[in-house]
Specification:
mainly beta; Neuraminidase; five-stranded mixed sheet; five-stranded antiparallel sheet; WD40/YVTN_repeat-like_dom_sf
């Protein structure tokens, strides 16, 4: 996942406006894509073999790409063409899922601001700072019984807040920059049309909107249930008020939510949703379903165990690329790679070290949904 930094502002909800635009799928294959496997724990499956890359989930982009490996309880770092960097971090919360970059001075671990923050199904939120401990993250918060599958970062005048998708509790939890859980209103980040059998699977922030992906949860196993049409993606304003939802066409246990990079052909700047259920990547514009990304032969791209999607940069994969992580073979193994328009080229190898201070920091607004609750 990208550094999820948002600017909170009041967004009016137009009374009487439909929440969902008409669901109309379109067929358009002008842009086809190549899938390039870069890193895997399975020898011969990708250009680089890394035994630590098992069931990779969240991605965080800075000067290099950080990957949360649920299968090994670690975070690993890679350059533009998948070249592994020296930094390896153990996550004490276990099985890291969502991950974000922290550009601020909050969320301190042993007196230093965490550079990267991680969520875990154990209910732990952990932070890492190289000066404190280059090899280990430190637990900053713990919620008993929670199953955190996704993580986002919000910036407000009242401070910075983490948003965590609790798959077991069926809610979005918020933490202040002291790692203290804060109370939200009962209606915040809740969509009454989503059945109670569905739970927040991930949370993402794009263009001043908060997107929550919902998956059907098996009450006995606690796992997501795959199936065509089994999923919702609801959109909220930055105060947690429901403002819409995308078409359900194409959804199948959705997890990844990302704005497509400008170099992605006809899908540039559309909303891309990655399905864990069937491994496809579905595109939406104005809440309408555009279809699935397809390979050079016109077949739907299907990446078994697909988790995150992350836009590339000029130094990391290319500005026209889309990084992906997948827990292949039922999460027993892992795959990291890029998707880019067929025949195009990516970036040259990068030798820069992991980021410690992203340069972009948006202007804070004067309103926050987290104060007063």
């Amino acid at each position: 996942m990208r550094s999820r930094i948002i600017t909170l502002c009041a967004v009016a909800v137009v009374m009487g406006a439909p929440l969902t635009a008409p669901a109309q799928a379109t067929t358009n294959t002008r842009t086809k894509f190549d899938v390039v496997n870069l890193v895997s724990d399975v020898s011969g499956k990708a250009a680089v073999t890394d035994p630590k890359l098992v069931n990779p989930w969240g991605l965080a982009m800075g000067k290099t790409l950080w990957v949360s490996n649920a299968g090994t309880g670690s975070a690993t770092v890679y350059s533009g063409e998948g070249r592994k960097q020296q930094t390896e971090v153990w996550i004490p919360g276990g099985a890291p899922t969502g991950q974000v970059v922290n550009p601020g001075e909050g969320f301190t671990v042993k007196g230093k601001p965490a550079t990267f923050l991680f969520a875990s199904p154990s209910g732990a939120i952990t932070g890492w700072n190289a000066e404190v401990d280059p090899k280990n993250a430190i637990i900053g918060a713990f919620t008993r019984g929670a199953d955190y599958k996704g993580l986002a970062l919000a910036e407000t005048d009242d401070g910075d807040f983490l948003l965590a998708a609790d798959f077991a509790g069926g809610r979005i939890d918020a933490f202040d920059e002291d790692f203290k859980r804060v109370r939200l209103s009962r209606s915040a980040f809740r969509d009454r049309t989503v059945p109670r059998t569905y739970s927040p699977f991930n949370v993402e922030v794009i263009n001043d909107s908060v997107y929550v992906a919902y998956a059907l949860r098996d009450a006995e196993t606690g796992k997501s249930v795959a199936g065509s049409g089994k999923g919702f993606v609801s959109r909220y304003n930055l105060e947690g008020r429901l403002t819409g939802r995308i078409s359900r066409l194409g959804l199948n246990a959705p997890w990844a939510i990302v704005k497509a990079p400008e170099g992605l052909g006809q899908y540039a700047d559309s909303l891309l949703v990655g399905n864990f259920g069937d491994g496809t990547i579905q595109a939406y514009r104005n809440n309408r379903h555009l279809g699935a990304l397809r390979d050079n032969n016109g077949r739907k791209i299907a990446l078994p165990g697909l988790w995150d999607l992350e836009p590339g940069t000029a130094a990391n994969g290319g500005a026209n690329s889309l990084w992906f992580s997948a827990g292949v073979d039922g999460g027993k193994h892992g795959l990291l790679g890029v998707i880019r328009p067929a025949g195009s080229r990516g970036s040259s190898p990068s030798t820069t070290s992991p980021t410690h201070n992203p340069t972009h920091r948006p202007t804070k607004s004067s309103q926050s949904p987290y104060g007063g609750y």
